[in-house]
Protein: AI-2E family transporter
Amino acid sequence: MAIPSRPTGHQTAPSGAVPPGQPGSGTTQQDPPARAARGELAVFTWKVLIVAGVAALGLFLWKVSDTLLLIFTGVLFAILLQRLAGYVRQATGLAHGWALAIVLVALILLVGGGVWLMGTSMAAQLGQLQEQVTKAVGNLPEEWRQRIMDESKDWPWMNQLSSFASGLVYVLGDTVVVMFAALYLAASPGIYRRGVVLLVPPQGQERAWEVMNVVGDSLWKWLIGQMVAMAAVGTLTAAGLWLLGIPSALGLGMVAGLLEFIPLIGPFLAAIPALLIAFAQSPQDALWVAGLYLVIQQVEGNLVTPLLQKRVVDLPPVVTIGAIAAGGVLFGILGMFLATPIAVVVLVLVNLLYIEDKLGEPRHFPSNGS
Structure:
């Protein structure tokens, strides 16, 4: 009986068999250079797709940047309303809705009170101003008066009025959007926070909650610094106007403090009624008032606000100034308005998500002790 041979580790291929990878074999095997080329092509294609996706996302965000800035403004006001309502709730024990209503009524009364304090005197001073302007024009030589009348007829009053009305409509529409967004966010903040967290994978949701808490606390500290600056500007303006003998000094100071929240354009808007009232008394008073507003704004913009942001929210003064300049170049007036809080958010995200999570080092902003 024949014993079958035991297979060995090295068997010879049957006669006529072709080794794999050779022409005529049933399987194909690529050369190493071919496999490397295909791998490099796949990596390159993936990188191109990533760059294209990032570029498309960046273009989309740029197109809707105005809307995103309005929503961010609503978030800021929502934080203000929510924190103030929290203080009212702690002091009174009321529900969140009633505390929020009290805060809203108080803010409306504050703004309305400033307008009322300034309004009555403003109307009388404007009438006096009109009389003085008419009298001043009447004292001019006949040739100058005729030239003023001829040039005033050629001014494009209707076009300017139409442009002003169109801009005013846009401003009012944006204000309505911001106010409603702030109200909804402040009334039910948990819903929107949970919605943001659900966009994060489950393993990162706890960290997302922590990041949002730190961002909210940092923005609240920025708002505190901003409110202190507004109070300082309002107090200095009211005191300076009172010393200069300008009527409605308290109302004008309140208006200056409230408009201080709007960078660049706010101080100019606040100075207009004060200059009109002062000019109604005398041109010399108007010059003194213009100098007063200029000095206060220089002190506030270059000294008070940067130092406050450094002390309250730990934001370096150079970052504050640079963010305002960059925001104005990229997004105009609204960009300047939101430049500093956006810088706060960016610094928080970089410190938490990159310095802490990626590099494993302790964050530097905001400080761990804050």
